[in-house]
Each structure stands twice: as C-alpha cells, then as structure tokens.
C-alpha cells in the first residue's frame, strides 16, 4: 500500500489532481448543461470516451519514446511519457471509481481497483511503465466503441446499421487486444522479477475480467455478424 506522503511526492501528482478535477467538472457540465435531457450514465460515458481517446494517444506517444515494443523491457524504469500517461489515466479511474460507487455499479468498481492499484504502483515506484502503458492501451482501444454502444441505445439507435457496425468493431477490438495480445503481456509481467506484486495482481485481475466477458462478446459478435449478413432474416423467411 502507499502512504499519502508517497502519493503527494509522486511525479505528476499535481497533474493527477488537475485531471481529476477536469473529469469531474466535465461530467457536471455535460450532466447539467449539455445533456440535461439524458441520464447521468450518458454524460459519464461521454467523459469515458474522451478519456479513452486521450489514453490511446498518450500510450502511442509513450511507445514512440522507446526503441522497443510493449512486450520488451518489462519491469524497467519509466520514461517521462509513460509516467505522464499513467498519471492522466489514474486520475480518470479514480473519478470513475467514485462515480461507480455512488451509482452502485460495483462490478466496475472491482475492475477499477485492479487498474488503480497497478497505475499507482507505476507512478509512485517509477517502474513497470512498459507493461502498464501497454495494458492501458490494450484496454482502452475498444472502450470508445463500448461506451458508444450505450449512447446509441439511449438515443434509440440500437437497431441501426451504424450500431451494428459499432458492435462488430467493439467485439473485434476487444477480442484481439484483450484475449490475443493481452495474455502474452500478462505472462511476461507475472514472470518478471522486477515487476511489483501490485502490478502483477492488477494485470492478472484485468485478464481474468476480460476472459469472463470474452465468451459473451464472442456470442454477441456472431449474432451481429449474422444480422449484418442477413442470415437471421433469411432463416425467418424460410420458416
């Protein structure tokens, strides 16, 4: 665990506070001004999409700052770009965890605790940036489509062609990133002597959650693909 003094002395601690306030203020603005006619979930997911896009960009920038792939140099010292990327996302996950507690979304709270623990370890201890940022990138790539699914549902566009294509995009990205590219990165993290226990627990926890959701998403992908190809419609006509 980390003390308040360690967190306060951590690199980019002020940025964490500023970004936390920015996420919170953005939600309040969207909820009370821009999307007053929508639910609180609608505004929160809009914030989540913005974070996902920023995290993807910062992750990519941090990959560009090293001369190796996300699978190399696991457990090594962070680059400044990696630490900043983790700090920004840490602020978001703290905000969203509090939101989920208030709205009783405890399944998401468990997922966020794993993520917050890993990112906090990376920021405070200044190492494991490669695996943490790599994991963050693999998690966030599919999240814009995930949250857009809920926005489209509330906008009554669930049955539109755009929604079907978005569902296929989400499922494809989730399955490839979480269940194909993710396990090798988690394995390297778990077997790395330099990675902290908190980082290993977080990596394993996120993989476990991904596996639990994987089968449901595979079934959803098959169902949406059949709908797009018109297979279900042809079967009904024959019946």
UniProtKB/TrEMBL annotation:
One GO cellular component term noted in the UniProt record for this chain: membrane
Listed InterPro entries: TLC-dom, TLCD5
SMART domains referenced in this protein's UniProt entry, alphabetically: TLC
Keywords from the UniProt entry: Membrane, Transmembrane, Transmembrane helix
Top-level lineage group: Eukaryota
Ranges that cross the membrane: 16-35, 42-60, 80-102, 161-181, 201-218
Membrane topology annotation: Multi-pass membrane protein
Boundaries of every TLC domain copy: 37-226
Cellular localization per UniProt: Membrane
Electron transport as UniProt keyword: no
PANTHER family recorded: TLC DOMAIN-CONTAINING PROTEIN 5 (PTHR31898:SF1), TRANSMEMBRANE PROTEIN 136 (PTHR31898)
Name used for this protein in its record: TLC domain-containing protein
Organism: Bathycoccus prasinos
């Amino acid at each position: 665990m980390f003390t308040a003094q360690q967190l306060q002395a951590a690199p980019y601690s002020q940025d964490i506070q500023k970004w936390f306030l920015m996420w919170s203020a953005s939600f309040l603005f969207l909820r009370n001004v821009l999307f007053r006619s929508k639910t609180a979930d609608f505004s929160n997911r809009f914030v989540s999409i913005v974070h996902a896009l920023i995290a993807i960009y910062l992750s990519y920038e941090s990959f560009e700052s090293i001369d190796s792939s996300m699978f190399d140099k696991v457990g090594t010292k962070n680059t400044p770009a990696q630490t900043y990327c983790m700090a920004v996302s840490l602020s978001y996950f703290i905000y969203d965890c509090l939101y989920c507690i208030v709205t009783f979304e405890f399944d998401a709270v468990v997922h966020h605790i794993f993520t917050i623990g890993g990112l906090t370890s990376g920021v405070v201890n200044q190492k494991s940036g490669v695996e943490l940022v790599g994991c963050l990138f693999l998690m966030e790539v599919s999240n814009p489509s995930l949250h857009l699914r809920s926005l489209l549902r509330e906008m009554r566009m669930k049955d539109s062609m755009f929604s079907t294509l978005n569902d296929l995009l989400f499922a494809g990205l989730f399955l490839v990133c979480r269940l194909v590219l993710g396990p090798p990165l988690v394995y390297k993290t778990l077997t790395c002597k330099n990675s902290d226990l908190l980082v290993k627990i977080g990596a394993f926890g996120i993989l476990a959650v991904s596996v639990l959701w994987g089968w449901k998403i595979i079934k959803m992908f098959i169902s949406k693909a059949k709908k797009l190809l018109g297979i279900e419609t042809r079967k009904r006509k024959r019946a």
